[in-house]
Design brief:
heterodimer; A: alpha+beta; five-stranded mixed beta sheet; five-stranded antiparallel beta sheet; 36% helix; B: mainly alpha; 64% helix; elongated
Chain lengths: 599, 172
């Protein structure tokens, strides 16, 4: 039936179609029937048509069903299919302390910018943005939005809430850009070491600057040698001394004498690294909070240099520990007179130990006369005190050394005047004297286990041992005996009180001292050196008017040592035990030479 | 014959087409899942960074110091409380304890004797000096015995745990 019925139009077409030349001129009623092979071909074609039509029908049905499925039952989950995956998170690397505590980190934020050419109604947009960000003036927004360029920052580092609110405004032409912001969870306490970045997260001071390329790669965190707990202790104690003595500033250092790692570095006043530009600008004569006293500042360190002087004299072999020197008569050289702060305490001849213990300038100068300026210059050079040191921050001060190194310089350098070094250099050299005589470069980056550099020998093991005994003597009986000692930790050290050099080069002002103390502990087997310096302290009733290192800086060092020792699990030492006593005693018998002043 | 071959090819074609479609959709689905995972990893990492920063801000030693001063009566560990393992005496035997008890009672009843004299805890590797052991204790035992054992038992005040407990009780 179907075949037959379908055949009719075919016949009709053939019969009535005017386009066929065969039918031209024939009557319309004439029916043409096709038979034989032709008929078979036609039927085959028709079958194929039916099959194809059925397939198309099925396909259309499938599409329709799918449409119904999507429109009625669809959950819309497929719409994300074409959103590209987010780019891998890549922000500036963290800076962490030696225990992995975060000192600086970056978080992803969004920043708001506008394409002024796409802004339709600038005044309206400016008004809306102004209500969201009242701290930016309406006029400023308007000016930016009416600009001629295609890109202008509106505000950096939005909080997620602000971002949401801006999105709600829906102003065309105002868009977000992924951004990152640097955070310093420890606040100002490590600001001098870490430095800070600009708004585009490029380091412009401290570790942030010197490791800018590495940090910018966003790979592993940078691990410093700093221990944030010690940093806090040192910061707290230096701050306390500054307040107690109404000083203008101060600083401190803790160094591992075995490895040269700097565990803590404090310079006060300091600043908030998240807003480095904020805060009041220092008035003329006021200290700059961005100035790192420990690395960039170079100072005459005063009597602390007697450690180097004594080590030099003993190590040269030209001065023996049982030698005696005249520390009574002032030394007159040209128009200079070298006298002592408490010279009247040393009538007659004094031993090397006594000269060191009560910190005699005259005695120290007499001792170095046995050695000579060339040897002294060589020694200071080997301790790294004459050249700009290598450290991982860009702020490094160049030492001021005499040129040429004349005998008068030799005499003043014996007690720490006429040479200016940075505190980091000083503490490195002190560590070398105390640790057995090996100078290792100071570093702010944690040394991996067992990777301590060989270092260079600056004095013999025996001299170092003697220096430890002498430094212990300063704390048990010398200039630091009031405050330097910490029971159980066998502290040794040396005080230093230097008159500050004024801008005109002289030493004029009263109360313009730099009072310092460097303590090393435990002296039987030194582990750490702790240094504190206070800038222009003013003596008070409690210190009986004294402004010296023993009264001003030594208490802070002692407090730091008594807090850090238990924290680091350093076993206490019994100073009374015979083993320790034997390690700390100084044998001066038989009595050696008596060195008289040259006539 | 040709028809069968054609049919076979058609069937194969359909199967191949179907497989390609299936695989392609599967790939898209997996890709989509991957994107979702990447996005959530991204936001988790972001959250971890923010939480890490917050954690270290809250743990800033300066802040902890202030808070502990304000709310706690804890103090930094004094050096005297740091002892090494060698500094801790061994547990005495029952016989020694008995003798010590008698010795302590003698000491308590002895006129002019103050049992509560503060005693330094033993320093590591160092035998205590004469201040450590009272004369009575030394008399009770021959001098060859390590004195540190008796000192610790006779005077519980040197027990570091006891010290800690006592301190905690005080603070409660």
């Amino acid at each position: 039936m179907k075949r037959r019925g379908n055949l009719v139009p075919l016949e009709g077409v053939i019969g009535t179609g005017p386009a066929l030349p065969e039918s031209v001129g024939q009557p319309a009623s004439m029916i043409v029937t096709v038979d034989g092979a032709a008929r078979q071909t036609l039927e085959q074609a028709r079958t194929r048509l039916v099959v194809v039509a059925a397939l198309f029908g099925l396909a259309l049905l499938a599409v329709s069903l799918r449409l119904v499925d999507l429109a009625v039952f669809g959950d819309g989950s497929s719409q994300q299919a074409h959103i590209a995956p987010p780019p891998p998170l890549k922000v500036r690397s963290d800076i962490v302390d030696r225990n992995g505590r975060v000192l600086a980190t970056s978080i992803a934020t969004a920043s708001l910018f506008a394409d002024p050419q796409k802004i339709i109604d600038a005044p309206d947009a400016a008004r809306q943005l102004n209500t969201l960000f009242p701290d930016i003036a309406y006029g400023e927004f308007l000016q930016k939005l009416q600009g001629k360029n295609h890109f202008v920052w509106l505000r950096r580092h939005l909080t997620p809430r602000q971002q949401y609110e801006v999105n709600q405004l829906g102003i065309p032409g105002v868009e977000f850009q992924p951004d990152e912001r640097r955070l310093y969870p420890q606040g100002s306490e490590v600001s001098q070491v870490i430095g800070y970045t600009d708004i585009d997260s490029h380091g412009i001071a401290g570790i942030e600057q010197s490791f800018d390329d590495y940090l910018g790669k966003g790979t592993e965190p940078l691990r410093l040698s700093i221990d944030i707990r010690l940093q806090h202790m040192l910061h707290r104690e230096v701050q306390a001394q500054i307040e107690e003595f109404h000083a203008m500033g101060g600083g401190g250092l803790i160094m591992d004498v075995r490895t040269g790692e700097i565990l803590s570095m404090v310079s006060l006043p300091d600043f908030d690294p998240e807003q480095p530009g904020d805060g009041p600008k220092p008035a003329p004569g006021e200290p700059d909070p961005h100035f790192n006293r420990m690395t960039l500042g170079v100072y005459e360190m005063g009597s602390i240099f007697k450690v180097f002087n004594t080590a030099l004299c003993l190590d040269s072999g030209k001065v023996k520990i049982n030698d005696y020197f005249d520390a009574w008569h002032p030394i007159q050289i040209g128009r200079f007179t070298i006298h002592d702060f408490r010279g009247d305490e040393l009538p007659g001849y004094s031993s090397v130990a006594k000269i060191f213990e009560i910190s005699s300038n005259i005695g120290s100068a007499r001792m170095v006369q046995q050695v000579g300026p060339e040897a002294q210059e060589r020694f200071m050079d080997s301790l790294g005190l004459t050249k700009k040191m290598a450290l991982e921050v860009p702020e490094i001060g160049t030492p001021r050394v005499p040129h040429p190194w004349r005998p008068i310089n030799m005499l003043t350098i014996a007690f720490g005047h006429g040479i200016s070094v940075s505190p980091v250099q000083l503490v490195s050299a002190i560590s070398a004297i105390a640790n057995g005589g090996i100078l290792r470069p100071a570093t702010l980056i944690e040394r991996p286990d067992g990777q301590v550099p060989q270092g260079t020998r600056v004095i013999s093991e025996e001299t170092s041992d003697m220096m430890r005994r002498l430094m212990r003597l300063v704390v048990t009986g010398g200039t630091a005996k009031q405050f330097g000692n910490v029971p159980g930790y066998l502290v040794g050290g040396k005080t230093g009180t230097a008159e500050k050099i004024m801008l005109n080069g002289g030493y004029a002002k009263k109360h313009a001292n730099l009072s310092s103390f460097v303590g090393v502990f435990p002296m039987s087997d030194p582990r750490y050196a702790v240094f504190v310096t206070i800038d222009e302290p003013h003596g008070n009733k409690k210190s009986a008017g004294f402004e010296t290192g023993g009264w001003v800086a030594a208490p802070a060092v002692a407090r730091v040592i008594s807090s850090m020792g238990p924290l680091l699990g350093i076993p206490p030492v019994d100073a009374e035990s015979p083993v320790i006593q034997a390690k700390m005693e100084i044998e001066v018998n038989p009595i050696g030479r008596h060195v008289a002043p040259p006539q | 014959m040709i028809r069968i071959t054609t049919l076979l090819w058609v069937v194969l074609l359909v199967i191949a087409g179907g497989t390609v479609m299936h695989v392609s959709y599967q790939v898209r689905r997996v890709q989509q899942h991957l994107n979702e995972l990447a996005r959530s990893t991204h936001s988790e990492q972001d959250a971890i960074r923010i939480l890490g920063a917050e954690w270290d801000t809250l743990n800033d030693p300066h802040r902890i110091d202030e808070l502990s001063k304000r709310y706690l009566s804890l103090q930094p560990t004094p050096i005297q409380r740091v002892v090494t393992l060698e500094g801790i005496p061994l547990k005495p035997s029952a016989e020694q304890l008995l003798k010590l008890n008698t010795a302590t009672q003698n000491a308590k009843t002895a006129p002019g004797k103050k049992p509560d004299t503060p005693v330094r805890p033993p320093l590591p590797g160092v035998l205590p000096g004469p201040t450590m052991a009272s004369a009575t204790v030394r008399a009770a035992k021959p001098a060859t015995q390590p004195v540190v054992v008796h000192a610790a038992v006779a005077k519980p005040a040197v027990d570091p745990v006891g010290l800690l407990l006592a301190r905690e009780e005080r603070h409660e």
